[in-house]
Amino acid sequence: MQCSHFASTSVIAIDDDKTLGFISGYVIPDRQDTLFIWQVAVDERARGQGLAKRMLKDIVTRQECAQVTHLETTITADNKASWTLFESFAKDFSAPLAKSEMFSKDTHFAGLHDTEFLVRIGPFSS
């Protein structure tokens, strides 16, 4: 559903009929300047090669994202790969990165899932 409803803000990387990576996102309906990244996945074979950042840059430089000046996502504290990706993206675009607690482990997940931090990058120009 993400790919069909939000195809213009999602991307898939395929090599030899094998999926190597995928990012799904959407422009927030009441904030057309903000792209929310919902999922990032990179196959083990393609990790450490900058694929996720290339896919992310592909999305934000599309005509459909011409009004986008900010990017948001949520990340748990222990997700080093995601922190590295989004910190590197912010650096490449010379944009500030702010984080704040969005969904608390105890309040929102009854202790069953780690706290999710909202990451907001921007403003930037693509």
Descriptive report:
The chain has one domain: Gcn5-related N-acetyltransferase (GNAT) (Aminopeptidase), CATH 3.40.630.30. Strands 1-2-3-4-6-5 form a six-stranded mixed β-sheet. It is an alpha+beta fold and 126 residues long.
Features:
Aminopeptidase; alpha+beta; 4 helices
In short, what is this structure?
Helix content is 25%, strand content 35%.
CATH topology: Aminopeptidase
For CATH, the homologous superfamily is named as Gcn5-related N-acetyltransferase (GNAT)
Find the structural class using helix and strand composition. Answer: alpha+beta
The top-level CATH class is Alpha Beta
Number of domains: 1
CATH architectural designation: 3-Layer(aba) Sandwich
As a percent range, the share of helical residues equals 25-40%
How many β strands by DSSP?
A: 6
Number of distinct helices: 4
The average pLDDT score comes to 90
What is the rounded Rg?
Answer: 15 Å
Order of helices and strands: HEEEHEHEHE
The main pleated sheet reads as: 6 strands, mixed
